[in-house]
Amino acid sequence: MHALKKNRPLRRIVLASAATVSGMVLLLSLKPHTTPTAALAVPAPSSSASAPSGSGGSGGSGSSGSSGGSTTTGTKTVTGSTVQTRWGPVQVKITVKSGKLTDVTAVQYPTDNPRDQEINSYALPQLRSEALQAQSANIDTVSGATYTSDGYRQSLQSALDSARG
After folding, report:
1. Of 153, 89, 91, the residue nearest 127 (C-alpha)
2. Potential cystine with 110: which of 40, 116, 137, 138 (Cβ 3.0-4.6 Å)?
3. Which residues on neighbouring strands pair with residue 85, listed in sequence order?
4. What is the pLDDT of residues 41-61, one digit of tens each?
């Protein structure tokens, strides 16, 4: 019985050490959350530029989008820049009629795997609805779709800038 009592503390130490090492490996293998913070810092200046949605020109977000010029009776369709996100490109197309945002369509978004499809199937309608309601790119991030939301917001801002410019 004396021999069993000596082995138990050693077993506990070994098990505690193994659990600690396993926990550290799991923590270190997680992806860092520094990228979303950096991505959120990028659209902040463009979002504030879009606050006065009725004003003529706001400038300054480096939009490299192509603007499709279908201007029939005050209706303009513009495609925003393609924004590269961690999970794939995001790009939107907008329709502006008489200075009012009437439609927003996601042209490109991540669809590489079933998880991307699941996330975007609920995120894109929410982002569209919010953009139409806000009449600007000053929209909230959809929980669980941070990268898509950031790319959507940036592409939307570049399309709005092109439509106004």
Report:
1. 153
2. 116
3. 88
4. 333 333 333 333 333 333 333
Contact call for residues 94 and 156 (beta carbons, < 8 A): yes
- 113 burial type by CB count under 10 A (0-12 exposed, 13-18 middle, 19+ buried): exposed
Per DSSP, the residues of 20-33 read HHHHHHHHHHSPPS
Q: Are 94 and 78 in contact (CB under 8 A)?
A: yes
pLDDT of residue 26: 82
What DSSP element (H or E) covers 90?
A: strand 88-97
Token code pair at residue 23: 């926990």
Q: How far apart are CA 76 and CA 98, in angstroms?
A: 9
Longest CA pairwise span in the chain (Å): 95
Class of domain 34-164: alpha beta
Domain ranges of the chain: 1-30, 34-164
- Confidence category of residue 29, pLDDT binned at 50, 70, 90: confident
Beta pairing, strands 75-79 & 83-85: unpaired
